[in-house]
Sequence to fold (140 residues):
Amino acid sequence: MKPDEPFPIAAAEELALDRRRFLCAAGAATALVLAGEWAAHRSRPAVPAEHVVVPNTLPVGEAVAFDTPAGVQALAVRLDADTIVAFDRRCPHLGCPVVWSAARGRFECPCHHAVFEARTGRVVAGPPRRGLAPLAMEVA
Fold:
């Protein structure tokens, strides 16, 4: 290249968006979105700061639905003579109220057929990514 010849790449061409730059920008944007989703998921509290009182007269295998003092719909079930569990009744997928299936011994969401384990509220089947939120409780 001689000193009086113009530089072979013009500034306007340098600013143009080519395939490599587009893919790099799209990849970086995707990574940021995924990192934000992961951070938001990790920062959600797993257990609501609710304390509820469940009656000791609940028969084995039966459930009772009630509202907590803060207005959260809850569902308590006596699994055996010594175990009572209580969960936030809203399905973590879209907020439909879950129901207790005594015949199957599990929680079910009628909206999208999600299934939750009785003792832990863990997702067994269906679209939710996380299980039911347990509630701190006291048996009275």
Q: What stands out?
A: Residues 11-43 form one domain. The chain has a mean pLDDT of 82. The chain is about 20% helix and 30% strand. The two ends are 91 Å apart (CA to CA).
